[in-house]
Amino acid sequence: MGKLLLGLLIVLLAVQASEGRVRRHKWDVKYEYKSPDCYEKLVITVNGQSPGPTIRAEQGDTVIVELKNSLGTENVAVHWHGIRQIGTPWSDGVEGVTQCPILPGDTFIYKFVVDRPGTYMYHAHYGMQREAGLYGLIQVAVPKGTSEPFSYDADHSIVLSDWYHKSAYQQAAGLSSIPFVWVGEPQSLLIQGRGRYNCSLVASLKNAAGTGSICNTTNPQCSPHVTIVVPGKTYRLRIASVTSLSALSFEIEGHNMTIVEADGHYVDPFVVQRLFIYSGETYSVLIKADQDPTRNYWMGTNVVGRKPATPTGAAILNYYPNHPKRSPPNMAPAGPLWNDTAPRVNQSRAIKAHPGYVVPPPQRSVRVITMLNTQNRVNGHTKWGVNNFSFVLPHTPYLIALKEKYVKHAFNPTPAPDSYSPADYDIFRPPPNPNASLSDSIYRLEFGSVVDVILQNANSLTANNSETHPWHLHGHDFWVLGFGHGVYNPVKDSSKLNLVNPIMKNTVPLFPYGWTAIRFRADNPGVWFFHCHIEPHLYMGMGVVFEEGVEKVGRLPSSIMGCGQTKGHRSP
Amino acid sequence: MGKLLLGLLIVLLAVQASEGRVRRHKWDVKYEYKSPDCYEKLVITVNGQSPGPTIRAEQGDTVIVELKNSLGTENVAVHWHGIRQIGTPWSDGVEGVTQCPILPGDTFIYKFVVDRPGTYMYHAHYGMQREAGLYGLIQVAVPKGTSEPFSYDADHSIVLSDWYHKSAYQQAAGLSSIPFVWVGEPQSLLIQGRGRYNCSLVASLKNAAGTGSICNTTNPQCSPHVTIVVPGKTYRLRIASVTSLSALSFEIEGHNMTIVEADGHYVDPFVVQRLFIYSGETYSVLIKADQDPTRNYWMGTNVVGRKPATPTGAAILNYYPNHPKRSPPNMAPAGPLWNDTAPRVNQSRAIKAHPGYVVPPPQRSVRVITMLNTQNRVNGHTKWGVNNFSFVLPHTPYLIALKEKYVKHAFNPTPAPDSYSPADYDIFRPPPNPNASLSDSIYRLEFGSVVDVILQNANSLTANNSETHPWHLHGHDFWVLGFGHGVYNPVKDSSKLNLVNPIMKNTVPLFPYGWTAIRFRADNPGVWFFHCHIEPHLYMGMGVVFEEGVEKVGRLPSSIMGCGQTKGHRSP
């Protein structure tokens, strides 16, 4: 009997070990007054923090987040960016695609396995709530005893964000207005939720309590973020960008950075002085504390790709035992020329899979979807679109609409178009006819098939302007096959794609007037958003949806229902 | 055959006449930038307007409002204030009491009969959305051929509101903070959605488009409201107050006003120079255009009952054919002394039922519920409460919880307390122990029984301060039996109550340090909110709920479900 119990215990422990541990989190999501850049505004917080608490886990662990919505009158949904949700597509957290919104007062349980080590993030995926502050990091460690292709003494992390003093509501109302009202460039860049606005610009405005100015540089909430290093040691710095709008450069005075990880994949290491990072991307860089140890150094981030109107975001690299608040002697780094695209393209091109970790891409795809990215107009509204369709979410989430037979006509079943007419379109000029249509059509992919997407950039509605769009794919990592300038030529350019050692990523930039080619295997049963990660661009329709193998998806939890045609229904 | 058809037609027409017509409205509710007092902010609009469109109907008509929620990420619910919802308690529009919130993208259908003529209003009843601008008037005419106890040449209406430049979100976050952050007095008073802020106070702030100042006195949206009159004619002016906070006085330079209607009931007419009106009240006054016809006159409204920090709200009474925009020669009326309570109490006492329309009250009640109104603290939060309980809404609306057997333990079944201990409580001092408890307990009333409520005021947490609270009862009109100063004495005061010709109302003020006695018959099957109509006070817990005859309520529409325990359920 004792032996039997012991045997059972051993079996249980083995199961525990192979299935990973459970990492349980209880979150309370609400609006609170915070002053991340010294300027007080309402921020969506998780357990009182923005960025929210970092989720730490080990490969194979199960993460459970019990999310209580305390926003009062506003719903919420949270996406686990970079987590593929294999077997749990209902936990992807995209309102309108994979779930109904979480009502005020409701507690929703997200449960998923983190099956790959690396640096990921989470953020709101409903309206423009990411911009309001709902985001944070996910760090998945390799199992104990597993080595990584680089070594370091300690691990630090940083979330980069851009910050508006207007509310996400105000920005959304402007985007929906005729004429279109643009909120403009962000007021601040935040490093780990901390920035510094020039309070003298708003000296006359009162704070909510009426006890002082709305902007107070002595508020401890906006003292710069400090990363402590010991001279001589090597650090892994995990960097994630959750910006609403901005492409960023990031640098550390006097320190090289060796890029070793991108979106959870090991990179063939290379050294940069500046890291370019787009919204939705994560990187790990190694830094060595090998500079003059008697002082501190600025870590700085600046806007690139758009004419900046936002000052440098700065944090302190603190060489122990210098005082952590001691300002470095120089100004924070001002960043590169904002409109010098070449170094940015070069960095993206330079990122290849680490030789020991190459996942060879299939040599052929069965389907090529070309996506012309354009700025458009629909009934007087300014929009963004793909192949002349601007995306709108249906009222019943796709995952439920496609899986549950009782849902009818939830969206337009006409397939979204696989291409545009390159011969008829000059990507270097504003569209002669900018009018597009709203659509909730999707791409249905053959399960297990290999699909190429050619993202094709174009001129916006403004002459001589083409923007950088970071595209993010849910539920997959894709191979980054190549980048080019001008119109993608299927004959000439396809032969130059990297089918040897491409990096896998979940987010990739599309450069001005350029193209980006990616490949992925449609082997994750579910419905997956693919969209520009610039929050206002997505809000204005810059996204598409892929379905693959939805018939293989397990029984949907009833907790994701309750809206559209699933209002008042119980999952059968 | 022709005769049969004719007969059928006559029957159909008769049914039509006896059942009233159907008044159908399609509403789109969304956030838009508006400048009601010249200061641009986000406003919740109905079909682009705030106040929303007036609902006009005739007694016995059926009103159908198809409300589309286009708020983006925020839910909504709309209450039809003063409409008793006999047989349709699910259309009362109170989130948490009679329905689940209406999700973004959803269209909810409110359908109810307006069974009594008079002046009513509608407004959001979710979070603090009323303050954000979602309100308007309901005017129910007497059937053609029916006379009213007064005559007039034409009918005009006016909605009074107070206006904050901060969002309802900001106010709510402050109310929920520790320490409590109070938004302060409103920036403007609006007459029919128009006011005038002193733009020089915010000259440096930009509008959303960045094209000019956030405050622009030449914006046509904030040109004063104009009521046109023809000299010599008599007008019925319907006045409703939907203020968030403020008690108001209203006057028209040089013109007497004869009060003829209150909350849909005919008043024994009397003349006032100033009308005092509390949030949730409606009045009709008659005015005669009998002054110097060569000029215009100010209509003015001012804050009373709180030390005002808000300028006079002004509109123009335009004597035709003077130019409607011609300013009257004097300053707008500055209003009475804010802290002179006696004239306000006197007006409330003077309002009696019109002799020809007295609804005699039952001479006895079977139950007296005394409600001590106090400001409290709960776990460091500042709250308002009744008999030491601060009200919180449950997660499943009461109407559904009480009617649908599958809902269990949706709220605390312990009855809410019928009284407090007058002997142990000094209403003239701040509470020695201000701590209260949160509660979602309710009052269950015997169906058809006659119930008295004695509202008993007290000192707030601040010494020498007692506020005016306008209490509003859903689903009923009540008889206003009396007002008094100090502690209500059941022996002495009950004998002085007016059981002869009390006015019936749905909203009644409770004056500082005073009591107000009302009586109603619990004969409307449903669940009904009774609460202070000051929006922040209700947000802070100043309300109770009555249930009566819920077993007689018809089958609940599934459209009201979808939250709490009804998420994923279909109405059986």
CATH topology of the largest domain in chain A: Immunoglobulin-like
Radius of gyration of chain A: 23 Å
Q: What's the domain count of chain A?
A: 2
3D shape of chain A: globular
The stretches of 5 or more residues of chain A where confidence is low (pLDDT under 50) are 11-17
List the SSEs and their pairings:
2 copies of one chain form a homodimer.
Chain A: H1 2-19, E1 22-34, E2 41-46, E3 55-58, E4 62-69, E5 78-81, E6 107-113, E7 118-124, E8 135-141, E9 154-163, H2 168-175, E10 188-191, E11 226-229, E12 234-241, E13 247-252, E14 257-262, E15 265-272, E16 274-277, E17 282-288, E18 297-304, E19 313-319, H3 342-350, E20 367-378, E21 381-386, E22 389-391, H4 398-403, E23 437-439, E24 443-445, E25 450-456, E26 469-473, E27 478-485, E28 504-505, E29 507-510, E30 514-521, E31 526-532, H5 535-539, E32 543-548
Parallel strand pairs in A: 1-4, 3-8, 9-12, 11-19, 20-25, 22-23, 24-32
Antiparallel strand pairs in A: 1-2, 4-6, 5-7, 7-8, 9-10, 12-17, 13-16, 13-18, 14-15, 14-17, 18-19, 20-21, 25-30, 26-29, 26-31, 27-28, 27-30, 31-32
General description of the model:
2 copies of one chain form a homodimer. Chain A is mainly beta and 572 residues long. Chain A folds into 2 domains: 22-350, Immunoglobulin-like, CATH 2.60.40; 359-566, Immunoglobulin-like. The first copy, chain A, has helices at residues 2-19, 168-175, 342-350, 398-403, 535-539; strands spanning 22-34, 41-46, 55-58, 62-69, 78-81, 107-113, 118-124, 135-141, 154-163, 188-191, 226-229, 234-241, 247-252, 257-262, 265-272, 274-277, 282-288, 297-304, 313-319, 367-378, 381-386, 389-391, 437-439, 443-445, 450-456, 469-473, 478-485, 504-505, 507-510, 514-521, 526-532, 543-548. In chain A, the strands form 7 sheets. A 6-stranded mixed beta sheet of chain A has the order 10-9-12-17-14-15, with no helix packed on it. A 6-stranded mixed beta sheet of chain A has the order 21-20-25-30-27-28. In chain A, a hairpin with a 2-residue loop joins strand 14 and strand 15. The first copy, chain A, is globular and about 65 Å long. At the A-B interface, strand 1 and helix 2 of A face strand 1 and helix 2 of B.
